[in-house]
Design brief:
binds S-adenosylmethionine, Rossmann fold, alpha/beta, 3-stranded antiparallel beta sheet, 12 helices, 7-stranded mixed beta sheet
């Protein structure tokens, strides 16, 4: 049954506010940076076939902090290359933030940015309409596959754009994280299948396995302090709860039973650890590095 609750992504301003707070309360970007510095360099070294220009597509790039961190590693592995970078991001606010970030970094002159203010499915339609034949060396979708109607079809389309030794990087929450437990328990009440999927890497790996796709996976341990969620009426706690449930104004619109059930589960040892009076949610992520279609 589709959820009667309204999805948080309907309100971009509240979504961005809650995402920003989530970044402050979690080690989300820190664990991605660790991955980018420790594991990604070897993956980036394998792409490109010695070409002097690399084509990159960032899907759901947000404000671009993680994209730029990856570019610095790409540049170290491929000194002297130029980069053609398609950014696919539907939020005007985030696209603006990304452009401002880039404008402050003159050393990024080797990258040509194309700003696509659109969703991944709009980008797919645009790509087909323009009969584009350009192949990508590196495509990333970081924490965004929750927001597409059909994650399998989205992955299939972007894989089809990869150059023969290109790579598609997907990062999502791990099936074994607190998120996985929350969604397995409350998927039917929380997730609106039109726009938010509550997918974990567990779901994506099953999908890739069923297609016989070749990929590698890497764990990214991460935590999130959700203590404020348990202070009734706390504004920040409510924003975090919206982010955790993907429901707009969850505290005000969910039934008392659903709210009580979700709060109980969030502090259950399956999802969180309690330490020094803080409730620390398991925010473990997983990165999947997928090969092109055969
Ligand atoms: C959780 S944020 C992740 C941002 C960034 N990748 C990061 O990890 O910091 C999700 C991003 O996906 C974008 N998004 C939402 N729906 C999308 C869609 N259908 N296609 C592409 N991007 C989408 C949002 O605007 C948001 O910037």
């Amino acid at each position: 049954m589709a959820s009667p609750l309204k999805s948080l992504v309907h309100d971009d301003s509240r979504y961005q506010k809650s995402f920003k707070l989530f970044l402050e309360r979690s080690s989300e970007h820190q664990c991605m940076q660790d991955f980018i510095h420790s594991t990604l360099p070897d993956i980036l070294a394998s792409i490109g076939d010695g070409k002097s220009q690399l084509n990159v597509i960032g899907v759901g790039s947000g404000a671009g902090e993680i994209d730029l961190e990856m570019f610095s590693q790409l540049r170290l592995k491929h000194p002297g290359v130029t980069v053609d970078n398609e950014v696919v991001e539907p939020s005007s606010q985030e696209l603006h933030n990304y452009r401002v970030l880039v404008s402050k970094k003159p050393d990024l002159a080797y990258i040509k940015f194309t700003w696509n203010k659109m969703t991944s499915s709009e980008f797919e339609a645009h790509w087909r309409e323009k009969k584009m034949t350009k192949k990508a060396d590196f495509i990333h979708m970081i924490q965004m596959l929750y927001y597409v109607k059909d994650p399998g079809a989205t992955i299939g389309f972007f894989r089809s754009l990869l150059h023969k030794n290109g790579k598609l990087l997907i990062i999502l929450v791990s099936g074994e994280s607190g998120w996985g437990k929350l969604w397995r328990t409350y998927r039917s009440q929380l997730c609106n299948s039109e726009i938010s999927q509550c997918v974990t890497t567990g779901d994506i790996k099953s999908l890739l396995d069923s297609e016989g796709a070749s990929y590698r996976s890497y764990e990214l341990p991460s935590q999130m302090d959700i203590t404020e969620c348990f202070a009734e009426g706390d504004e920040k706690g409510e924003l975090l709860l919206d982010f955790l449930t993907e429901v707009l104004d969850f505290s005000k619109t969910a039934s008392p039973e659903l709210k009580a059930g979700v709060l109980e589960l969030l502090r259950h040892p399956d999802c969180s650890l309690e330490s020094d009076g803080r409730v620390i949610f398991n925010n473990n992520l997983e990165a999947l590095v997928v090969d092109p279609l055969p």
